[in-house]
Amino acid sequence: MRQPAVIVIGIGEDGCLGLSSRAYNCIRQSQILVGGQRQLDFFNDYPGRRVVLAKKVKDTLEGLRDESGDHNIVILASGDPLFYGVGSLAVKIFGAEFCGFIPQPSSMQLAFAAAGLSWSDATCLSVHGRSIEGLCQKMRRLSKVALLTDQENSPVRVALHFKEYHDAQWDAVLCENLGGTEERVRRLNLEELSQLTDVSPLNVLILTRHANWRCPPAFASEPEEAYARRIPKLGLITKREIRVLSLAALQLPSHAVVWDIGAGSGSVSIEASRIANEGRVLAIECEEESQGFCAENILKHGADNVRLIAGEAPAALEGLDSPDAVFIGGSKGKLDALIQFVWQRLNPGGRLVINAVTMENVSQTVNTLNGMGLTYDVNLVQIARSSLLAGKYHRYEALNPIHIFSLSKDISL
Hints:
Elements: E1 6-11, H1 21-29, E2 32-35, H2 37-40, E3 49-52, H3 57-62, E4 73-78, H4 87-94, E5 99-102, H5 107-115, E6 123-126, H6 135-138, E7 144-148, H7 155-164, E8 170-176, E9 184-189, H8 190-194, E10 203-209, H9 240-250, E11 257-261, H10 267-275, E12 280-285, H11 288-300, E13 306-310, E14 325-328, H12 335-345, E15 351-356, H13 359-371, E16 377-381, E17 384-389, E18 393-398, E19 402-408
């Protein structure tokens, strides 16, 4: 069998000592050795050309593509190159048929072995070179997570982030310098982790839930009282039952980008973010008092994939990521312009849901959608809740009726 032109070899903290004879022979037979400076330092006597992978990894590898036709190239990577490593990038650049892989145990395997924990029920995530935004929401229903970190999104910052978003029901095992002479394993609570000052940049952070933790439901709508809000009567907030129906109408995929226009207290944004837990929700609100309540609720409910956008739509929507779903709960008298702007920006296959309370907004929505030649569904929702009378009798108390308009953008548009 012909040896691939590019071999990606996993290497651990013990350097050459941990390499198999096959891996070592591939390095000896190559003409170009590529890797991080720390990895290349294990091969100071290498007779060929050494190429350092630094910040512009993709550019560096693309620069070697032409040379791979005439030279054997070895790329050194940490652990398993196809686990959050350079392996997938090598395949894209050189082609799968020209790449071979010799993995070492991944950092995750080494971490769980060092901690003495099973990892068959664990989820592996990374904030290495990625945004920490949305991490709480991704982990909301998980009980055991191994996390790859970096110097910016360090274990200490992760702990502070979870504390800020009121999700402190975690215990930590911090595994540092795995496989090396300075390997260290520390068991900490989140408070202790947040105060560390001596964390190695080479680490894996294992997080496990407290014993009394209960997994939250996949979809649950909170009562109005769970949210800080302005208080005329029950507050300026989309009522619980209407939220359920509106979110169902949005048909949110897990990676959706969602616009919540007229977010108010942020209840729709927060509950949408739990469904689109791999995506992002942009809560657009123009009133300063409501912005304060919305920001408070985002932190209180751990919705770290919700971003508050202060401003009035449609002007505040300029420059935002194009949405996969849009909810319009308030329009400030600009409903016609808002619908037209949103429809233009909505991604093909996306959903638009409009809640209209007043007869004027219902009429305006119908006229605008009809004028645009769009097909839509509309439901008139009338809810009555039970309430106590004289302390022992129950009666129904009606909420304001509301029209829920919903429509999809043709995927061919």
